[in-house]
Amino acid sequence: MLDIKWIRENPDRLAEALVKRQWSSEEARSAVDDLIVKDEARRAHLGQLQERQERRNAASREIGNAMRSGDSAKAEELKGEVTAIKEWLSGAEAMERTLDKALDDALAVLPNVPAHDVPVGADEHANVELRKVGTPRQRSNWTREHFEIGESLGMMDFERAAKLSGSRFTVLKGGLARLERALGQFMLDLHTTEHGYTEVQVPLMVKDEVLFGTGQLPKFEDDLYFVGVADAVLASDGAAIVSRSGEPIVVGRRLGLIPTAEVPLTNLVREEITPLEKLPLRYTALTPCFRSEAGSAGRDTRGMLRQHQFYKVELVSITDQDSSRDEHERMTECAEAVLRKLELPFRTMTLCTGDMGFGAQKTYDIEVWLPGQNAYREISSCSVCGDFQARRMDARYRPKEGKGTAFVHTLNGSGTAVGRALIAVMENYQEADGSVTIPEALRPYMGGMTKIEAR
Hints:
Layout: H1 4-9, H2 11-20, H3 25-69, H4 72-108, E1 128-133, H5 146-153, E2 156-157, H6 158-165, E3 171-172, H7 174-193, E4 198-199, E5 205-206, H8 208-213, E6 225-232, E7 250-257, H9 262-266, E8 273-274, E9 281-290, E10 309-319, H10 324-341, E11 346-350, E12 362-370, E13 375-384, H11 388-393, E14 396-397, E15 406-407, E16 409-417, H12 418-428, E17 436-437, E18 451-452
Parallel strand pairs: 4-9, 8-14
Antiparallel strand pairs: 1-11, 2-3, 5-7, 6-7, 9-10, 10-16, 11-12, 12-13, 13-16, 14-15, 17-18
């Protein structure tokens, strides 16, 4: 969420930022003007509220003075004034909540302001290549895509997955199931032992306010899956409150299945003040992720590239305000290290303003080479968000200089998408006989296997 004080002082800069993010000039100006109007209405009301509160307190003191001096008429007049002010305040406090919500709702759908060095463009065609590593393996007459390899091995089954769950699900068996598990373990070990991340096991279902904190709500609600849960109502001592019939009283609520471990990992610092000396915090987790893929009909319908359920190793960093840009470069290098050790060709792209995520200030996409498609495809996306998420989570730290607190900066990245890494290994290490050679880095996790072959 953006700082309304900054918007108030820099309305033109916000409008320019929205235009860079491919809003029309009219949409951008209208959104900024609407925010200013809502902010002014809220501030004017708060001014009136403060004036009435001050007058109520002063009148209350004057009542005491009038009573002590024996001026009962004056005291009664003041009591009437205080009563009228209290009645006004009752309605005014409800109006304050309404005005607060209107402003918060308007702020909640605004994207982050791109960093000054982000290329301006409408879509992926304006992304800029930062570096390229490795020599892409060219497609030969026997080169196949991952789903062709997997099906011929008898270890990748889309038909049975569809019977179980519908489209965009996969059943893996045998060597490919083990290879996917090995990839996740390899990535976790790399990031914890060599890159200094702390492994975390997180809940896979989270509250709405947690999804709001990292920017999934309200804008991307259609991309999420939700489940209903029932909780027993507990007394202050922790015991369940029961009805007259002796049954526990329960309340229903919803929880969202995480679309990425970024959501619970980043929210570990929500509503807290982290000591500066503990920063940066670096977390990693291997979790399943759940996405409805709303709006992706017809895209990557074959194979495992775009699934409703997939595994991913996530990287999250929490830093002070001065360190986040350097941390972004470091995080990207950590994600790239996965592909370097697997000896997979890749390129790193700086995303343009029109292709960048809602909460990001700047994003690097790492694209791995897939010879089956004869193309680079995204396998990791590393973003620095500044204090955009921290404001939504109320996550702070105490700076060395000055008093008070400041919002932390947050970063997230895939380190990497496990399913897509499986695809990349299958396609880059496929052999003419249909087998798949195991990369050296993964063999310790595969019980010494060097090759996956059909049985």
